[in-house]
Amino acid sequence: MGIVNVTPDSFHAASRVASLEAAITTALDMWDAGADWVDVGGESTRPGAQPVPINEEISRVIPVIEALRNKRPHGLISIDTRHPSVATEALAAGANMVNDVSGLRDPEMFNLVLESKCAVCIMHMLGEPGNMQSNPQYDNVVNEVSESLLSTARRLIANGHSSELISLDSGIGFGKTLEQNLALLEKSEPFRGEEEFSLLWGVSRKSLFKDLLSRESSDQRLSGTLGVAAHAMSQGVDILRVHDVPEHHDLVTVLSELRNQQQ
Predict the structure, then answer these.
(1) Global pTM value
(2) Per the residue annotation, which of 60, 82, 206, 221 is the catalytic one?
């Protein structure tokens, strides 16, 4: 899943696109480089980020989604938003998935997913972007995050949504310390549930590499990101949300070929 940030303030400056044309080119290049999904977002949710007015978010993302749907009728498009009104407009414009960093905590978003029967990624976030990194605490981060995600997913299923349309994201960096992030990345099994939900990891160039590797700038964090991607493959993670599609496509291709040789 390639990241298309139609924002002026996303944490990785190189990922920001400042125009409709740049966003379209970025997304098309990602598909051409091997991405299955492109994830279009119009509001930064980095730690400390300020909310964006709904109309502004809509004006950023809808023209991009409409243009991409016209250019690639069968391309998979995700809308990265926590606002039901934005998600509604995005689905109408041609998006296939709602990627909600707030984990469907808004009942309107929960109902929208049910009514539209769209694919959904449910992510765990402690608090809000403005305060989520203010001393996050858990008794057992793996148990609490996995139980929260599975509970929401199972409520969807109980209301008629297909488990095959649900992906779960533990929310690395969204209200977690370095130690808590590493615990969540250690193994994926607790998050799958008996339903065998698909898993999405979004770790690309995040601040955990600042804490783990002393890489202050996001521009210095590709190697660490690829290390997590290799581990994700060993864990059977289904979707990697990344800034750097060609590098991840090469990694996945090589590791997959090596696995095939061993069988």
Answers:
(1) 0.93
(2) 206
